[in-house]
Amino acid sequence: MRRGLDWLPYGAGVLVCVVTIQLGLWQTRRAEEKIALGEQLRVSAQAAPGDAAALSAGVEWTRVRLRGQWVADKGIVVDNRVYQGRVGYHVYMPLALATGETVLIKRGWLPAGPDRSVLPVLPTSTAEVDIEGRLRRPEARPYTLAAQAGEGRLWQYLDIAAYRAWSGLPVVDVVVEQSSASDDGMVRDWPPPDLGVDRHRGYAVQWFGLAALAAGLCGWFGWKRWQKR
Predict the structure, then answer these.
(1) For a designed S-S bond to 27, which of 87, 185, 204, 212 qualifies (C-beta 3.0 to 4.6 A apart)?
(2) Does residue 187 sit within a domain?
(3) Cα-based distances in Å from 54 to 63, 109, 140
(4) Which backbone phi and psi does 117 adopt, to 5 degrees?
(5) 223 or 191, which is more confident
(6) Quick check: 35 pLDDT over 80?
(7) Residue range(s) defining the domain that contains residue 6
(8) What ranges make up the beta strands (E) of the chain?
(9) Same domain (yes/no): 86, 144
(10) What is the mean pLDDT of residues 124-137?
(11) DSSP class per residue in 84-116
């Protein structure tokens, strides 16, 4: 029993070493994924915009140019979206395409008024419009105290399935984040994604450092024990 307990610290040290190496490799893979995403963004920014066919592929960050008509009565606003320190809304509105598809367009940001019970009026053209933007996938359900994604025109976060049920529109699974200019007073200043490559590399170095420390301690204590014997 005593002999087994003597070897327990070495077993724990090896376990720590293996786990921290795996964590370091995971952070390295995450950094490589972010580098690949950065390259994808660069290529996408330089490529010519695609058409409605790109909606079916659903590759995020793909640039598209679409033509259609707004379905104004099914527009919604997502609450508590901050721009330059001001609270406001992100405006989403479905665009009916000539192909028969309907896609939600993230049109832009509008500030909240002094009376939060009064929702902003959404300036909308009744004519056909040309929209250019990039494909995005709605974020997974964020942390929220709301019992549901939205009610009426006011939503706390975008849930495509819930929006389909509310609107009765068969919108596609992706959203187009509008980048083209439009005379509607909305702000379209979409920040680029925070890739955080250096952060992942820093975490990897820390995990590898802990693995090296665990291995060094195991070796040092093993050496001291061997000397005593």
Answers:
(1) 204
(2) no
(3) 9, 25, 22
(4) -80, -15
(5) 191
(6) no
(7) 2-39+196-228
(8) 63-70, 76-83, 86-97, 102-111, 129-136, 150-151, 154-155, 171-178
(9) yes
(10) 91
(11) TTEEEEEEEEEEEETTS-EEEEEEEEEE--S-T
Summarize the confidence of residues 203-212 as an average pLDDT.
84
State residue 7's pLDDT score.
59
**3-state DSSP call for residue 81?**
strand
The pLDDT value recorded for residue 108 is 95
44 domain-assigned? no
Residue 30 CB partners (closer than 8 Å, separation 6+): 200
Please state the pTM of the whole predicted model: 0.72
Residues 6+ apart with CB under 8 A from 210: 16, 20
- Among residues 176, 157, 180, 177, which one has the least CA distance to residue 101? 176
Q: Which residue has the higher pLDDT, 131 or 12?
A: 131
Q: Is the pLDDT higher at 9 or at 79?
A: 79
The verdict on 84 and 154 lying in the same domain is yes
What is the Cα–Cα distance from 172 to 39, expressed in whole angstroms? 26
Element (H, E) at 3: helix 2-46
**Would you state the structure tokens that stand for residue 12, as one six-digit string?**
């724990």
* Percent of the chain whose pLDDT exceeds 90: 38
In a domain, 15, yes or no: yes
Structure-block tokens of residue 131: 């929209």
SS3 assignment, position 142: coil
Measured from the Cβ of residue 185, the count of other Cβ atoms closer than 10 Å reads 12
| CA atoms of 147 and 144, how far apart (whole Å) | 8
- pLDDT of amino acid 224: 66
